[in-house]
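Researcher: Next sequence.
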Amino acid sequence: MKKKNMFLQLALAATLFVSALSTTAHAADATTTRDIPVGGSGQIEMVGTIEPTILSVTMPTFVPFNISNSISTQNKVISPRINVKNNSNVPVQIDVVRTDINISNLRNTTWSSNGSVGSNQIAIGLKQEETKDEMPTTLSNARWLKQYQSSPMNVMILNSNQEGAMYVVGTLGENVSESATFNVTPTFVVSKTSN
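Model: Next structure:
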């Protein structure tokens, strides 16, 4: 069984330690009232407070994986479990905002951004763990890495202090060489969820 040794380098934006500031504004003493006549004007004092929140997520920065057509399942990748931990006291979302792909060693091969491959194509994505410690066998619900990404792609949402996991998944056409390596480098950004 021929296997390729590939590398998924997880470039972590700002090393996944991001400071975010949220602002809360409220009116000064709500019990103080004043009448303003019609057509008149008045001033209302508003006081804002800044509540700093440190966003901290832990995940690996380098993930090697193997891909081969000889793997019998729909997912042709063998990947280690990518453990992700939200160390923050608020929910966070993890998005891929850019993906650098170098498949120059794979002669006559093109990239597929949607998981559907022709005979000379390859596709790699990320899939959130569905069954603990089990590599996914199907490609359903995979988030496909796009070479020319135009908008952020969410790959995971974690509650405060929650642990999660994902795997590298992928597929390749029957004419893609299984004796070369390639690099896929997604850039992740962590932000506070709006939920």
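Model: Residues 75 and 137 are 5 Å apart (CA to CA). Residues 1-28 have pLDDT under 50 and may be disordered.
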